[in-house]
User: What shape does this take?
Amino acid sequence: MTSDRPLLLNNARLVDPASGREERGGVLVQDGVIKDVGSHVAVAADAEVVDCSGQVLAPGLIDMRAFIGEPGAAHRETLKSAGEAAAAGGVTTIVSMPDTNPVLDDPAIIDFVLRRARDNCIVNIRPAAALTKGLKGEEMAEIGLLREAGAVAFTDGARSVTNAQVMRRALTYARDFDALILHHVEDPDLVAQGVMNEGEFAARLGLPGIPREAETVMLERDMRLVRLTGGRYHAAMISCGDSAEIVSAAKARGLPVTCGVSINNLALNENDIGDYRTFLKLSPPLRHEDDRQAMIEALNDGTLDVIVSDHNPQDVETKRLPFAEAENGAVGLETLLSAALRLVHSGQVSLPRLLRALSTRPAEILGFPGGRLQRGAPADLIVFDPDAPYVLDKRQLKSLSKNTPFDEARLEGQVTITMVAGRIVFDRRNGSRDSNV
Assistant: This one.
């Protein structure tokens, strides 16, 4: 339970991407919400005071794309372990993907996940339901019933809906229910046997490539279907400059379109695969450095709306294989913020712009009340030192799976405190303070 006693986070560098606020001050929290915020908030009678020591205090991160093994693959990740990893990385809300066993295509399964998360997870879990039954891409799922059960969006997760008629019908129904479609834009026929970005580097490694057109052809089709139906659409992850141009043109036409990018495609490029590092086998694949720079530019000009972790835990049996045979995916909840801060330290992206893509825009797109430092907003907050250096040791990750692309990487920026609904669930100074899990 949240304490009746107010909590004052004081002596902080406030960064609110929703309002543009950036100043020294504090945040007063009571009953799970922000009661006051600003430079004038320095003392409060009867409040428990936490000295932030000049560190950044910002809204908690909202990750719009994370795969969690439970139900069905709890050996890869449970709701509990995912929550612990998220809290350590400053993620206060996870949108979980429906790629589970059973698939999240039934209201009863959505209800199960919500109840299970409530009892076992220290951060907010908001499930996205399957767009098609069984993720087969053939028959649309019950969007209305699933939305009523608590689904916040609809997606086939790591699969694309290749049938244009099914996608048209889904967008039409989504429009009528004001539901959001999240789509993985990758044409499987063009991907074929490809395992990394098509180009000179793939040729040197002797690996079959995936052309950018596998992404752009599917994305272009979807833009036309959005124009036809008027349904709300979010491209889950784009990875190349051509895709950014397609989304930018759609937005210029006034279409209800948004898009995301994986932190991996912002922080890494195909060269990082090096000597066949399977932890960097991803979907979409890591692209050429020119495409990575195009993604950064798209983030700065507003074409890219959100940054996601694309957290996808895989065990050693699926990753300790030849590159072409290994599964796609990397864990990312715990390293999302640190990896993203590379762009700030390099001077390519401002901190407010970065936090907007990690928190405010996801909240706006999904209709969540968080993502802002304002009175009445949920007290889902993080305190972090953007300059704290460390070398990542995958053995120290809280995720059950250790397939991080940043193993042994030098990173800067560590979360000190994570708060969910006014309760401190992670405190690097003292360990987790949550007593209900």
Summary: Residues 312 and 329 are 5 Å apart (CA to CA). The mean pLDDT is 95. DSSP finds 13 helices and 19 strands in the chain.
